[in-house]
Amino acid sequence: MDQLENTKQLELKKKKRALEEIREKRIAQKIRSFKAMLRRVKLIIVCLGVLFAIAFFMKGSLVDYKKIHPDLRIQPLQKDTEKKEVTLNYMGIQYLIKPIQDYEISGLVVSHNNPSGFGDIYHDSKSFDTKDLCLIWGNNLMNNDFHKVKFWNVSWTCNFRYPHGINFEFDEISNNHLITRSDEIRKKIAKIRVGDQIKIKGTLANYTSLNNENGWRNSSLTRSDTGNGACEVVFVESLEVLKKGTPAWYLLYDLSKWGILLFIGFGIGLLIKSTPVDDSLRQ
Fold first, then answer.
1. Among 88, 81, 58, which residue's Cα sits nearest to residue 195?
2. pLDDT tens by residue, 214-259
3. Domain ranges of the chain
4. CA–CA distance, 33 with 229 (Å, rounded to integer)
5. Are strands 232-243 and 173-179 parallel, antiparallel or unpaired?
6. Taking the model in full, what pTM does it have?
7. 261 vs 1: CA distance, rounded Å
8. Which residues, at least 6 apart from 130, have a Cβ–Cβ distance to it below 8 Å?
9. CB 88 within 8 A of CB 95
10. What helix, strand, coil percent values describe the chain, rounded to 5?
């Protein structure tokens, strides 16, 4: 009897050991699969990070002057207007717009403000004036010197600087405050990006809110002035994108940005869902 009992115990131990070995192999396989998945996720995030960095610097790149649309060589067209004052409501506020002169301008977008960004405390989604567009045209696009000019916008102004020896015409750059009565045009303005070549038609105008909290914002009528009040206020009637700047790089920038966030979330999910079995899975 003792011999038989011992034999049964040995067989049970063998079975238990075999089951433990199977379990250990499964855990080891699970660990290997998990770590391999994490490595793939990390690699994808690194690749997306590299793509994101490249796209960040390439988006908004300015084209060679030979690829400039012919309309951008033409000076802005400006003449007296017969258009009358307009009163319109935007976001529950009444605005009075006084057209001063008919206006048409074609230019290369070299900078714009960011109404939705933290750096612009004067604009948001409720602002009557939309995105400011800084444009250059004419002789400034006759060679590639404009590539060496640094452009940037703050809330209300376009700024630029360039090294010695660069030919740059001060009266062929303007910062344009854009207002419109059209929701469709407002959406188009929001989509304009640095590098786009555009044509704007409308009127140079002065405007104010009828509660008069902020006074009048008046348009400049010449491109040769500088400083406060030198910006054009354009009551936009039509906006045409003659040539897109770098749509592929902007697309890659957006895709890589969201891809990074997606895979970071996926990696965190993997860690959270890994079974306690295996604290080693997290090592």
1. 58
2. 688 899 988 888 777 789 999 999 999 999 988 888 888 889 999 9
3. 2-58+249-282, 65-245
4. 65
5. parallel
6. 0.76
7. 67
8. 115, 178, 179, 180, 186, 189, 190
9. yes
10. 40, 25, 30
